[in-house]
Write a structure and sequence with these properties.
Layout: H1 2-106
């Protein structure tokens, strides 16, 4: 009987210890839930980040697709400038020829 009383008298401290273990476990679970919540929040931002990246890629592709027409336009401008230079050279040759003719006419 005294052994039973001794066991009974220790039960409150055993129960107290078990409650503190449960409290620690609940605290650990709460922390894990916070981590999971943070991870879910981070995951929820991924679609918008991917969407933004896709829109950037789309814009870059749009710019790239216009480059051939820009280059073509620049080449046509260069061609026009070369043609204008060619006409100027022809005009200068004509003037030199005219001057040469005048000089030979006076000599």
């Amino acid at each position: 009987m005294s052994h039973q009383l001794s066991v009974i008298s220790h039960q409150p401290s055993v129960i107290s210890y078990q409650l503190s273990v449960i409290s620690y476990q609940l605290s650990a679970i709460s922390h894990q839930l916070s981590v999971i919540s943070y991870q879910l929040s981070a995951i929820s931002y991924q679609p918008s980040a991917i969407s933004y990246q896709l829109s950037v890629i789309s814009y870059q592709l749009s710019v790239i697709s216009h480059q051939p027409s820009v280059i073509s336009y620049q080449l046509s401008v260069i061609s026009y400038q070369l043609s204008a230079i060619s006409h100027q050279v022809s005009a200068i040759r004509f003037q030199v020829s005219a001057i040469s003719y005048q000089v030979s006419a006076f000599s």
